[in-house]
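Can anyone check this?
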Amino acid sequence: MQTYRHPGRSSVRRPHMVLAAGLVAGLLALSGCGAGDSASDASSGDSKRAIGADERGAADSAAGKTEQGAGGSPSQRKKSDAVPSGTHVIRTATLSVEVRNVPKTAAVARSAAESSGGLVSKEETERIDDTHDMSHLVLRVPQGEYDAVLKQLAGTGKLLSRTSSAKDVTDQVVDVESRIATQRASVARVRKLMERAGKLSDVVTLEGELSSRQASLESLLAQQASLEDRTSLATITLDLSEPETAAKDGGDDEPGFLDALGGGWHAFVTVLLWLAMAVGAAAPFLAALAVLLLLWRLLRHRLPGRRKPRTPEPAGSSPAPPAS
């Protein structure tokens, strides 16, 4: 059975189909453009975030390299703390020695410190009661020569007292070094941000932050220098004294002719001083006594003398004839 199609009706449907197809194609084109724009925007945002992430990653990696160069990664630092490659120890000692001659022994102590590569940090010498000397010295010697110098100083005389101590500061040294590396990386990051800053307010803020971080870095560097000085050089405090009854003339124990002569002169001067003191003390009384004696003699000469009484003559006796 054949179907009959009207020629006019098919011709009328074709323009409508073409128009519908055109509209669909336009809509698809518009949706494709919008999707392309959104995709391009998303890709642009992702690229910006990626650039920022790359910059942060680069800065963090640079800081990590700096920290690793100074103290290694955190896991490596923990391992190094557990098994340190070098031990940092602060050693101190105090000696009190009785010697015959303090100046000579102090010279020996200075020579021992300087010959070992150290130095004399402090020295005080004084004379007590004009009879004996005392000296206080603070010596800084290398750690390797610490025991030898200590033994040499203890043998210069009679050892009265000795104290020594050792403090392990390895953890403190490693911690300070790690903090210095971190602070240096922080200062470097702030300087890079200052180079990129475009606003004056940002520059002022970054300058304040940079000044604060540099101050912290300088404080850490000072701590590191102090630890290095105390761990590289040991400190020995030496007190030298002489016996109070020790003879000083020529360093001899037995007195000689000069000692006897000096002792006699000292006794003679002492006697004269005591006599002068006695005369000075009695002078007012002697002067008053002399004045009273003088007055008594003057008054005695001025008073009239007393007449002697006549003896009575016996009765019946004639007077004696006058002498011819």
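Reply from J.R.: I decoded it. The chain is about 60% helix and 15% strand.
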